[in-house]
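Components:
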Amino acid sequence: MSTKQLSENVKAERRFKIDNWIPYLFILPSFLIIATFLFYPIGTVFYYSFQNYDISAPFYNSFAGFDNFVKIFTEDKLFFPSLLTSLKWVVSQVGLQLIFGLIFALLLNQTFRLRGFVRAIAFIPWAISGVLASVMWSLMYNEHMGVFNDILMKLGIISEPQAFLAGTTSAFISVIIAELWRGIPFFAITLLASLQSIPEELYEASEIDGASKWESFVHITLPHLKNTIVLTTLLRTVWEFNNVDLIFNLTGGGPANSTTTLTMYIANLAINGSDFGYGSALTVISFVLLFAFAIFYLKITRYERED
Amino acid sequence: MFNTNGRTNKVLFFYLPITLMFMWTIFPIYWTINTAFKHEGDIIKRPLEYLPTSPTVENFVVAWNNVGFATFFKNSLIIGITTVFVVIILSTLSGYALTRYKFKGKGSFLLMLLSTQFIPRAMLIIPLFIIFKNMGLISNPLSLIITYTAVEIPFTTILMSGFISNIPRELEEAAAVDGCSKLQALRFVMFPLLLPGIVATAVFTFIYTWNEFLLALMLTNQQSKFTLPVGLSFMMGEFNVNYGALAAGSVIALVPAVILFAYAQKHLVSGMGGAVKG
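Structure:
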């Protein structure tokens, strides 16, 4: 140790001057681009939220104080309903993705022929964009040519073709199912990686102790997966709360705003571009809600880093 | 669990669910491909054709030439490749600094990277639109390249530092003893060993840029500058949707992402393991 340490010290001394600057030079471009195009824009959202900011009439922009926020809580007829829709969306997505992701991971963790192939297929939806997935599912949901109507009619469940995306309840369920298709693989991948790190001996020992498969699942598998589950559900909650690609393209928030989540509402406001100040205020509220949730969640789940 | 009848249980608890899982995953993809190869009249014909009786590539020709998927494909490709190039260089440099050096502010920089993961992307659409409008870069691929680079760098830096920490420090020291400069050591010693990590990071970044929708929609208002997701969305929103061409366009958008993903998924998972460890 000592000779190596010594020579390293000498070398370090020699390179001292340049070496001091190298790490900063290396991180500088990344730092600048993140600061300018992530942190600065976030700052401006907070600024715009206190302004009347109309992109088409920038000369009339003015300080609005808390007007935007007051309006959201008192006059806005869409705010609370869209928040509720967001809640339903996030809870059903994360809950179902977790359950099916775990089932997928447990299945894919078995040894069987063609396992590599089946795994690769099972993970594919993860690589597919929300827009692409919405095209795929809209082809299947379609009233005139959709395969679901065909299958359901053949099974005798419905007697005539349904426009799944036109009814308020059926549209919501349809969007949920399509997003599940895309979301389950993320859980499947992370849970499978975590399952593979459980030592086989633990199961052997519990089998010798006479534990059933169910018991070893509850007492070995689940506790081992806990940290992964806590982290992935948190990440997915944030992600699904902010995710609009599929809703935007399948229903656009309709019919009758039944699929308008808070983020979908903000996206519509931003794209119409009429009142950026108001949209920014909504964005700030959704950010604060998510941030508060993340802290609360980490606290109640008592997340700890594995050592 | 139920040892009395192992074979039935194996069917009930393994083969049946795994078949259902396989069908559920593959069917939407299959159905899109099936639709893409049908003649327009056959798409709405009853009874539905579960296999095209007379497959045609007509839809692909229409999507590629008439709808503009050739342009969307080219735009997505240019944005994707440029972003990958920039992201790889920047994240290798910052990943290297994080792994191999102790320096003041390292912890803060790491915290900065991690905190970006909690920034809702929807928060960015309004201010970025204003920023790029002021810079005159709306409908310019540069605005998307810059934005995607900023969004991807935090994660890819952590990913790269995971890969770098797996390479023994001694190799570089040996190169330094042999008279290599720091940059030469990076280029001739580190780079070849890092290549698998670079490939995984590149694929990850490329798939993101290939799929990203909301920012691309917001920062583009000319059809000739659409990326594939924006082009698909635009086509879906048309009053008279040509379903055959829409399905063909989807297949065009699908193939590169899926091939790259299938190629790199193992590296990606091991890289994530390394990033967590390092």
